[in-house]
Amino acid sequence: SRVLTIENEYIRATFDSSTGLLMKIENMEQKLSLPVSQGFFWYNASTGDKKSPQASGAYIFRPSRLKPLPVSRWAKIHLVKTDLVQEVYQNFSAWCSQVIRLYPGQRHLELEWTVGPIPVEEYWGKEVISRFDTPMKTNGEFYTDSNGREILKRRRDHRPTWKLSQTEPVAGNYYPVSTRIYITDGHMQLTVVTDRSQGGSSLKDGSLELMVHRRLMVDDERGVAEPLMESEAGSTVRGRHLVLLSSVSDAAARHRLLAEEVVLAPQVVLAQAGSSLYYSW
Amino acid sequence: TGDSAPLNEAMAVLQHHDAVTGTARQNVADDYARQLAAGWGPCEVLVSNALSQLSYYKQNFSFCRELNISICPVSQESEHFQITIYNPLGRKVKHMVRLPVGEGIFFVKDPDGKAVPNNVVMLPSSSGKEDQWELLFSASVPALGFSIYTVDKVSVQNNLQAISRKHRSHAR
């Protein structure tokens, strides 16, 4: 078939089997459908230019170009369907892969990404993002949380308390994402709950991106005197993005409960057979 | 003796120095990692003691720090093991447990001794690596509490014996 789907009683995710990429998310409970294209891209880190000698570094995010490059335009996929899980393994490159999964009774789509070691043989610093593109009309607005508490409205190239002269069209629109980021068209809402603090933005309407990993060749000269460059082979990072598609009226209750489950996740402890009665004395 | 103070202190040092942003020299970052690991060790003992006291059973608890990359010697090598799942939330949660295991069939029991549906899925192997298997089952954990699930690997011989016993009892 040209398309491939995974679904449970609430969510259906459709993939283009020729590219291996996610192409649609449906909330079957609320009869919502949203074309979503998700993939990994990387920004080439600036080492300084005519406008400014400032290089991208640990403190400073400064890509050399506005448009990120795709890690790959297609993914090699592998589908697993059992009673308890349905998952699509996507392999984008030797250093970037992802599993998109659905468990029964789950109202969100789980994206477990694995990125690294980032190759830097050509001496280009890379800042890797996961980007969701949708046709949603979002009027340049998106929302991020502030330390997992208040949700704040962010508007592209705008600050609420002063007249902004935007000099960094990408980095100047990046905001901290402690637990969640979302976009909405007033009717439906696409929320991504993260498992760790990340940087995120919406650089064009209907788009949402989160930075997942970075490896840089040049120090940003903010005091550390070392580039953000892991020694030896470099590190591999694995994390999860939990994606919720719901009506605006329903979204807050969903992402609050979900973020709680991520922050205060169950702890698993194992024990081999054989135990003795425990007496507190 | 369990102790959470070393981890408490390590966290305080890390937070004071803004250690999570990558804004430290590599040798300093390595030292932060060392302090965290050293702090977590006595915390594992503390959690083990707490679980023993709450469950009234003393066990050799094992914390798999590399479960995110499907490494857990206990689940991969044991034929029989227990999984204790603690829920820090103030409401009941359902949690899908995923554990790396060896190839085989497994029998999972909930805290009441009832069989729990489970699946074993094969992870797509990256080149040159052996096939990896993961055991999946859904666990229910009460608010601010824990549930203990037991897992038995069903050997082919045991399975055949069980089938033969079933046939004999049907014949009778």
Largest sheet of chain B: 4 strands, antiparallel
* Rg from Cα of chain B: 21 Å
In helices, the fraction of residues of chain B equals 25-40%
* Oligomerization category of the chains in this entry: heterodimer
Radius of gyration computed on alpha carbons of chain A:
20 Å
**Can you count the helices of chain A?**
1
Query: Strand pairing plus helix content of chain B: what structural class?
Result: alpha+beta
Give the low-confidence spans of chain A: none
Count of beta strands of chain B: 8
Number of helices of chain B: 4
Shape annotation of chain A: globular
Mean residue pLDDT of chain B? 87
Name the structural class of chain A: mainly beta
Whole-number average pLDDT of chain A?
A: 94
Shape assignment of chain B: globular
| Cross-sheet strand order for the largest sheet of chain B | 2-8-4-5
- Order of SSEs of chain B: HHEHEEEEEEEH
State the gist of this model.
The complex is a heterodimer of chains A (281) and B (172). With 281 residues, chain A is mainly beta. Helices cover 6% and strands 46% of the residues of chain A.
Task: Characterise the protein shown here.
The complex is a heterodimer of chains A (281) and B (172). By secondary structure, chain A is mainly beta. Chain A has one helix at residues 248-263, and strands at 3-7, 11-16, 22-27, 32-35, 37-44, 69-70, 76-81, 86-93, 96-102, 109-115, 126-133, 141-146, 150-155, 175-177, 180-184, 188-194, 198-201, 207-215, 237-247, 267-277. Chain A is globular, with a radius of gyration of 20 Å. The relative contact order of chain A is 0.18. The mean pLDDT of chain A is 94. By secondary structure, chain B is an alpha+beta fold. Chain B is built from four helices and eight strands, in the order ααβαβββββββα. Chain B has helices spanning 5-16, 26-55, 73-77, 156-171, and strands at residues 57-62, 80-87, 93-101, 105-109, 115-116, 118-123, 132-141, 145-154. In chain B, a hairpin with an 8-residue loop joins strand 6 and strand 7 (132-141). Chain B is globular and about 55 Å long. The chains are: A mainly beta (281), B alpha+beta (172). At the A-B interface, strand 8 and strand 20 of A face helix 2, strand 1, strand 2, strand 3 and strand 6 of B.
